[in-house]
Design brief:
Helices cover 28% and strands 26% of the residues. The chain is α/β, with parallel strands linked by helices. It has two domains: 181 residues, Rossmann fold (3-Layer(aba) Sandwich), CATH 3.40.50.620; 119 residues, 3-Layer(aba) Sandwich (Rossmann fold). β2 and β3 form a beta hairpin. α3 packs across α4 and α5 packs parallel to α9. The structure holds flavin-adenine dinucleotide.
């Protein structure tokens, strides 16, 4: 059995969880195995009935699990492994998913490969995985010798595919939690001040770098975003360090990992630490006045020119097309 650990975010399954389910189904097919999903958290029971295409859904629903509580979640996953003896356990390679699985690996004295991007199955068994390191600048091939194999899946490594397969059985997982399991817990969640579409959900992201020159100049990127469907504005570290944009807008190794249909990079050189955050974009359009800028080697489309002329021209043309 492949055990897929899913994450609940805002009373729904996170995008990364759908990707994990897709990977688990693929692994199950190649290893002639079945998939069970584990849903942990307040409201898990209600979400379980929405899942399709897995054999079973294990549920640990508890009023106290209203946020990620590291020890309690690790206790539940460890207990599920002990009760169900899966061959492979796969969780989202998000901050919480990696935190959780590291705790599970330590508790059970097992190996763990985090942020996996590819899986090699030979003779019906998972032999090797490729994992992404240092923000994607190093890919590592790993063979895990301990059993069960613990993995996390790099977000956006594979596209999520919905399944309209059969409705699974839902089973409450008996787990005993003690006070000790709740010694680390979240006291307060302070939402980002940013309103509108998030960088990770946007279908079009417009990034601004040093070439923007000022916080004021980002207004034209906001205007461009408002004319496009499902678009958001992001930035490089130079722009956030200069105080032109909040840190939450940063894309890259130490910022958000985005995967939009289109990334429009304005006045951005294309440093590796930035590119690892946008490399999963389906298309990249770079606007840069330097024809030698490294970003042109990664871009699908390029405009060599001053963004302070190119972006207003784009805005004007979109307004003309939309009649606004
Ligand atoms: C450990 C570490 C982590 C890091 N993490 C991140 C991260 O998460 N995200 C990140 O972005 N960076 C990160 N960095 C920084 C990264 O190395 C680069 O310094 C940064 O991405 C460069 O930002 P930039 O492209 O805006 O600036 P620059 O590299 O200075 O490039 C500016 C570009 O704008 C162009 N330009 C200038 N004026 C105009 C104009 N008028 N019209 C058109 N083009 C113009 C220039 O030709 C140039 O190509 C990290 C660095 C380190 C060491």
């Amino acid at each position: 059995m492949i055990l897929a650990i899913l994450e609940i975010s805002k009373n729904a399954l996170s995008e990364a969880s759908w990707e994990v389910l897709t990977a688990a189904r693929d692994l199950a097919q190649k290893t002639n195995s079945s998939v069970a999903a584990l849903l942990v958290g307040k409201g898990a029971q209600a979400l379980a009935s929405t899942l399709k295409g897995v054999g079973a859904v294990l549920v640990a629903d508890d009023q106290r699990l209203d946020s990620f509580i590291p020890d309690a979640f690790a206790q539940i996953v460890s207990s599920a492994i002990a009760q169900k003896s899966p061959k492979i356990v796969i969780a989202p390679g998000t901050e919480t998913g990696n935190d959780l699985m590291a705790r599970v690996a330590a508790r059970l004295n097992l190996g763990l490969a985090t942020n996996c991007t590819e899986f090699v199955v030979e003779n019906g068994a998972l032999k090797r995985v490729t994992r992404s390191n240092w923000g994607g600048s190093l890919l590592e091939e790993v063979e895990i010798l301990s059993s069960p194999i613990l993995l996390t899946l790099q977000p956006h490594a594979i596209p999520a595919q919905m399944s309209d397969g059969h409705t699974p059985t839902v089973e409450a997982l008996p787990v005993a939690l003690s006070e000790k399991d709740f010694r680390v817990r979240m006291k307060e969640l302070i939402p980002s001040e940013k309103k509108g579409i998030s960088l990770t959900d946007a279908k079009v992201v417009i990034g601004g770098g040093r070439g923007m020159g000022s916080a004021e100049a980002f207004k034209m990127l906001e205007e461009l975003a408002s004319l496009l469907h499902n678009a958001a504005v992001g930035a490089t570290r130079v722009a956030t360090n200069n105080g032109w944009r909040p840190h939450s807008d940063q894309i890259g190794q130490t910022g958000a990992q985005i995967a939009p249909d289109l990334y429009i990079a304005c006045g951005i050189s294309g440093a590796i630490q930035h590119m690892v955050g946008c490399k999963n974009s389906k298309k990249i359009l770079a606007i840069n006045k330097d024809p030698e800028a490294p970003i042109f080697q990664r871009a699908d489309y390029g405009v060599i020119g001053d963004l302070h002329q190119v972006v207003p021209a784009l805005v004007a043309e979109l307004k003309r097309l939309k009649g606004v």
